[in-house]
Protein backbone atom coordinates (compact mmCIF):
# COMPACT_ATOMS: atom_id res chain seq x y z
CA UNK A 1 0.00 0.00 0.00
CA UNK A 2 2.87 2.38 0.83
CA UNK A 3 4.54 1.64 -2.52
CA UNK A 4 1.33 2.40 -4.43
CA UNK A 5 0.91 5.65 -2.51
CA UNK A 6 4.55 6.60 -3.26
CA UNK A 7 4.07 5.84 -6.96
CA UNK A 8 0.90 7.93 -7.10
CA UNK A 9 2.58 10.85 -5.32
CA UNK A 10 5.62 10.72 -7.61
CA UNK A 11 3.39 10.57 -10.71
CA UNK A 12 1.29 13.53 -9.52
CA UNK A 13 4.41 15.58 -8.76
CA UNK A 14 5.89 14.86 -12.20
CA UNK A 15 2.67 15.59 -14.02
CA UNK A 16 1.92 18.75 -12.03
CA UNK A 17 5.30 20.25 -12.88
CA UNK A 18 5.19 18.99 -16.43
CA UNK A 19 8.85 18.07 -16.07
CA UNK A 20 9.49 14.63 -17.49
CA UNK A 21 11.81 13.28 -20.06
CA UNK A 22 11.16 10.18 -22.13
CA UNK A 23 13.93 7.80 -23.05
CA UNK A 24 12.85 4.81 -25.11
CA UNK A 25 15.05 1.80 -25.48
CA UNK A 26 15.14 -1.88 -26.23
CA UNK A 27 18.59 -3.35 -26.19
CA UNK A 28 18.03 -6.84 -27.61
CA UNK A 29 14.63 -7.17 -29.23
CA UNK A 30 14.58 -7.41 -33.00
CA UNK A 31 10.85 -6.74 -33.15
CA UNK A 32 9.78 -4.13 -35.62
CA UNK A 33 6.99 -1.71 -34.70
CA UNK A 34 7.73 -1.92 -30.98
CA UNK A 35 4.65 -0.77 -29.07
CA UNK A 36 6.11 -1.01 -25.59
CA UNK A 37 9.02 0.70 -23.93
CA UNK A 38 10.17 2.79 -21.02
CA UNK A 39 10.15 6.41 -20.00
CA UNK A 40 12.67 7.71 -17.50
CA UNK A 41 11.37 10.64 -15.49
CA UNK A 42 13.02 13.02 -13.04
CA UNK A 43 11.49 15.85 -11.06
CA UNK A 44 13.63 18.54 -12.76
CA UNK A 45 16.69 18.99 -14.98
CA UNK A 46 18.81 21.20 -12.70
CA UNK A 47 19.57 20.70 -9.00
CA UNK A 48 21.41 22.55 -6.28
CA UNK A 49 24.28 20.83 -4.44
CA UNK A 50 22.81 18.51 -1.80
CA UNK A 51 19.29 18.53 -3.22
CA UNK A 52 17.62 15.08 -3.51
CA UNK A 53 16.89 13.65 -6.97
CA UNK A 54 13.61 11.80 -7.51
CA UNK A 55 13.63 9.30 -10.38
CA UNK A 56 10.90 7.11 -11.86
CA UNK A 57 11.06 4.47 -14.54
CA UNK A 58 7.77 3.73 -16.30
CA UNK A 59 7.36 0.54 -18.32
CA UNK A 60 4.43 0.82 -20.72
CA UNK A 61 2.42 -1.31 -23.14
CA UNK A 62 0.57 0.50 -25.93
CA UNK A 63 -0.65 -2.67 -27.61
CA UNK A 64 -4.00 -4.42 -27.33
CA UNK A 65 -2.29 -7.64 -26.22
CA UNK A 66 -0.51 -8.85 -23.10
CA UNK A 67 3.26 -8.44 -23.04
CA UNK A 68 5.14 -10.81 -20.74
CA UNK A 69 8.45 -9.76 -19.19
CA UNK A 70 10.47 -12.61 -17.63
CA UNK A 71 13.04 -12.33 -14.84
CA UNK A 72 15.58 -14.70 -13.31
CA UNK A 73 15.99 -12.60 -10.13
CA UNK A 74 13.58 -10.65 -7.92
CA UNK A 75 15.19 -7.34 -8.98
CA UNK A 76 13.15 -5.66 -11.71
CA UNK A 77 14.95 -2.34 -12.21
CA UNK A 78 17.98 -0.28 -11.29
CA UNK A 79 19.09 3.36 -11.35
CA UNK A 80 22.68 4.51 -11.86
CA UNK A 81 24.23 7.97 -11.52
CA UNK A 82 27.54 8.64 -13.29
CA UNK A 83 29.70 11.74 -13.26
CA UNK A 84 30.85 13.57 -16.40
CA UNK A 85 33.83 11.20 -16.76
CA UNK A 86 31.66 8.08 -16.67
CA UNK A 87 32.54 7.11 -13.10
CA UNK A 88 29.69 5.42 -11.27
CA UNK A 89 28.69 7.59 -8.30
CA UNK A 90 25.63 5.66 -7.14
CA UNK A 91 23.70 2.52 -7.98
CA UNK A 92 20.29 1.97 -6.40
CA UNK A 93 20.75 -1.80 -6.10
CA UNK A 94 24.20 -1.69 -4.46
CA UNK A 95 24.12 -3.25 -1.01
CA UNK A 96 20.65 -4.74 -1.54
CA UNK A 97 19.92 -8.46 -1.61
CA UNK A 98 17.67 -9.97 -4.28
CA UNK A 99 16.24 -13.47 -4.35
CA UNK A 100 17.43 -15.80 -7.12
CA UNK A 101 14.01 -16.79 -8.44
CA UNK A 102 12.15 -16.91 -11.72
CA UNK A 103 9.32 -14.45 -12.14
CA UNK A 104 7.31 -12.53 -14.68
CA UNK A 105 5.31 -9.37 -15.07
CA UNK A 106 2.44 -9.16 -17.51
CA UNK A 107 1.41 -5.80 -18.92
CA UNK A 108 -1.85 -5.94 -20.78
CA UNK A 109 -4.36 -3.45 -22.10
CA UNK A 110 -6.05 -3.25 -18.69
CA UNK A 111 -2.80 -2.65 -16.74
CA UNK A 112 -0.69 -1.01 -19.41
CA UNK A 113 2.10 0.43 -17.24
CA UNK A 114 4.14 -0.06 -14.10
CA UNK A 115 6.29 2.59 -12.39
CA UNK A 116 9.42 2.02 -10.31
CA UNK A 117 10.89 4.93 -8.35
CA UNK A 118 13.92 5.83 -6.26
CA UNK A 119 15.38 8.86 -4.55
CA UNK A 120 19.03 9.84 -4.39
CA UNK A 121 19.68 11.71 -1.14
CA UNK A 122 23.47 11.98 -0.98
CA UNK A 123 25.37 15.12 -1.90
CA UNK A 124 26.55 15.61 -5.49
CA UNK A 125 29.10 18.31 -6.23
CA UNK A 126 28.56 20.80 -9.06
CA UNK A 127 28.74 19.41 -12.56
CA UNK A 128 26.87 17.29 -15.07
CA UNK A 129 25.68 13.77 -14.29
CA UNK A 130 24.07 11.00 -16.30
CA UNK A 131 21.14 9.18 -14.73
CA UNK A 132 20.29 5.81 -16.26
CA UNK A 133 17.18 3.79 -15.53
CA UNK A 134 17.36 0.08 -16.36
CA UNK A 135 14.53 -2.45 -16.68
CA UNK A 136 16.24 -5.82 -16.36
CA UNK A 137 13.74 -8.20 -17.95
CA UNK A 138 15.61 -11.30 -19.06
CA UNK A 139 14.03 -11.41 -22.51
CA UNK A 140 13.39 -7.67 -23.09
CA UNK A 141 15.85 -5.47 -21.18
CA UNK A 142 15.50 -1.72 -21.74
CA UNK A 143 17.28 1.38 -20.51
CA UNK A 144 17.16 5.12 -20.89
CA UNK A 145 19.41 7.98 -19.74
CA UNK A 146 19.07 11.65 -18.87
CA UNK A 147 21.78 14.29 -18.28
CA UNK A 148 21.26 16.63 -15.33
CA UNK A 149 23.16 19.61 -13.99
CA UNK A 150 24.05 20.21 -10.34
CA UNK A 151 24.83 23.84 -9.47
Please describe the topology of this protein:
Elements (H helix, E strand, L loop, with lengths): L1 H16 L18 E7 L3 E2 L5 E9 L5 E5 L5 E7 L4 E4 L11 E5 L5 E8 L6 E9 L6 E9 L1
Parallel strand pairs: 2-10
Antiparallel strand pairs: 1-3, 3-8, 4-7, 5-6, 5-9, 9-10
Shape: globular
* Widest beta sheet: strand line-up: 2-10-9-5-6
Tell me the number of structural domains.
1
| Biggest sheet architecture | 5 strands, mixed
Question: Strand pairing plus helix content: what structural class?
Answer: mainly beta
End-to-end span in angstroms? 36 Å
CATH superfamily: Intracellular proteinase inhibitor BsuPI
What is the tally of beta strands?
10
Classify the oligomer.
single chain
Question: Would you kindly provide a written description of the structure presented here, covering whatever features stand out?
Answer:
The chain has 151 residues and is mainly β. The protein has one domain (2-150): Intracellular proteinase inhibitor BsuPI (Immunoglobulin-like). It has 1 helix and 10 strands, in the order αββββββββββ. It has one helix spanning 2-17; strands spanning 36-42, 46-47, 53-61, 67-71, 77-83, 88-91, 103-107, 113-120, 127-135, 142-150. Strand 5 and strand 6 form a beta hairpin. The model is unreliable at 10-33 (pLDDT under 50).
